[in-house]
Amino acid sequence: MSYTILGKKVEMPVEVRTASAFMALYSVPSATAQSIIDYTGLTVLQYRPGRALCGLVFVDYIDGDLGPYNEFGVTYMVRSHTAPPETSVLGDLRSLAAGTAGALIHELPVDGEFTKAAGREIWGFPKVLAEFDTEHVGSVKRGSVSRDGKLITQLSVKSGVSVPGGGANMSLAAYSHLDGVTRCTSWDMAPTGVKSRPGGAEVQLGSHPMAAELRKLGLPRRALMTTTIKNLAMTFGEATVI
């Protein structure tokens, strides 16, 4: 399968050969998170009663089929769309441990026109153009993203300790919703140089509506954990409408 995006042919699956990333994971009220993602028809995963997981992530795509670009994502851990409606918190924890949970890509600003067009057309990812100022090297990783002249967020993440088995491949279902359609995409990752720690993040929210939505979740607050990835190779497969 291939797509023609802005006059350029994109073959599937799409490969990212080199990228780096840093992220902060937050515990947020599940009722508020659910109200935010209701538009997708998906259900937030509860890692404990009344609490859901929201991630803020900066990615520097260095070498990949869609070219080099910066990306900022607001993600929520969600139940698989095939999970029974009576799934419990214990069932959610089991799905986390088994790797059968999914990640909803709720917001996805980027700084490249081509990747924006490809992301929206191929997978239904909600990519929009934004302005970035990032630093992916050093003991503290920093990222700032703004749109329409308004700050969305500034995030800094301190390096943690090396994760045993941090180079193991992993797969995740990436969910997206655009123009009234929810999709599920296979997302394979091969990270190396992974470091994690409890806490370790400082976040500042700006005046953009995306920031206002994060404030509804109680941010800024202490992160549950932070992760930095020195090199992240990824493969994105076809999207399936659900």
Automatic annotation (TrEMBL):
Domain of life: Bacteria
SUPFAM superfamilies to which the protein is assigned, alphabetical: Acetoacetate decarboxylase-like (SSF160104)
Gene3D superfamilies: Acetoacetate decarboxylase-like
A Pfam family the protein falls into: ADC
Record InterPro entries: Acetoacetate_decarboxylase, ADC_dom_sf
Name assigned to this protein: Acetoacetate decarboxylase family protein
Source organism of this protein record: Rhodococcus baikonurensis
